[in-house]
Amino acid sequence: MADNPTSDIWRHHALFVLLTLGIVFLSLVPLNTVPRNIAPPDLLLALTFAWVARRPDFLPVWLIALVFFLTDFLFHRPPGLWAALVVLGTEFLRNRIHNLRNITFIAEWAMVGAVLLAMMVGNRLVLAVTATPQVPLSLTLIQIGATILIYPLAVLASNTLFGVRKTAPGEVDALGHRL
Amino acid sequence: MARDKGKAEEFTGPLRRLVVGLLLLVLIGTFVLWRIDNPRVERLRAAIVDSVVPSFDWALAPVRTVADITSDFQSYAKIYEQNQELRRELRRMQAWREAALQLEQENARLLDLNDVRIDPKLTFVTGVVLTDSGSPFRQSVLLNVGRQDGIQDGWATMDGLGLVGRISGVGGQTSRVMLLTDTSSRIPITIQPSGQKAVLAGDNTIGPVIEFLEDPSLVRPGDRVVTSGDGGVFPGDLLVGSVSQATDRRLRVRLAADYERLEFLRVLRSREAEPITDPGSLVAEPDAAELAAEGPADG
Hints:
By secondary structure, chain A is mostly helical.
């Protein structure tokens, strides 16, 4: 692994930005102009939560806010709202990171799923309160469901490909700080 | 054990909370601003898209080409049947072409006899589709023509045959076309031959719904649907598609434009309708009209 923890963190910031660009690119490219009945999972969301549940120091809150704010604009969502909800959801997990380290994967999965569902409900509630036109409920449900289903894959990819693992209790970095 | 960690976070804690709070404030603030002053924020969105997407362009083109080639390759399998089908279709089209030519000549003679002045033909700018909306909830495409090419918000967009959507959001070099299938798309239409006016509302399916129809019994599946030009937003008489009845008994429109392959789109330059402001001397005498206008001001 990395000899310098700070450079390791920055490398993962850069990696996350690259992954974001890749996902944005992939979702923009296949020109699909016919409306579909199914919605693909939100890869970026699953990846973000997988990283935050493992190494919150790899994904600072400003990076999450920036990335989701930008994708709000690119994907034609109401700007700011979804980004704010993602920040809230990840902060909720971040504050419980010590619990997250000790629970089984199934429990973690359930917890992340609950947070994602709460974010979706919050999104629809705010949109309803502000009388913003909404997308069909079935599509949103399918997308959140697919995102929750793909979460284990995002975790697997984070573990094996991107080197984002849960830290063992008492593990220290090269400078002797607790992780 | 875990409490030791608190030590190090003690002085970053409140600061962190402040940063998170500020971020949330900015994000929610943007959303509220978007809700209040939509056009300005949408212009910002167009500017952001305009700066991000064209930088992808070098990569978009090859990926799309590869995707097109694979789909073309799949169609090689049935190339013979397609060829036969096309021949039959061509026969039918030639008959129609003959009929159309004759009708056009007849039409021109009649118009000449009646001395009718019709709208000048619309001119158009052709653009290439860069990307789709990137989200399953939004039906829109991004064109590579923008303000530099004189594109304006609200202009109609067609493929070779039928209406595709309208411009919503113009950047310097790109513009977004909201497709008729988008949930927020509403277009005034006329259904021929009964001539009834209605509104075509997108609902994220391939067949938009016909709403506000006065008498559904006069409409049959297969009737032609064209834009009505009501409200002055859209030029009239653009082909949209034909009426079809879906399994849920609602009247929908089968779109004439080929939504499977939107590649080149025409943006029609439409001019604003000239408003008629004065009552005119025939309806009321000039003096009387002026008196009527001044009357309430005096009193």
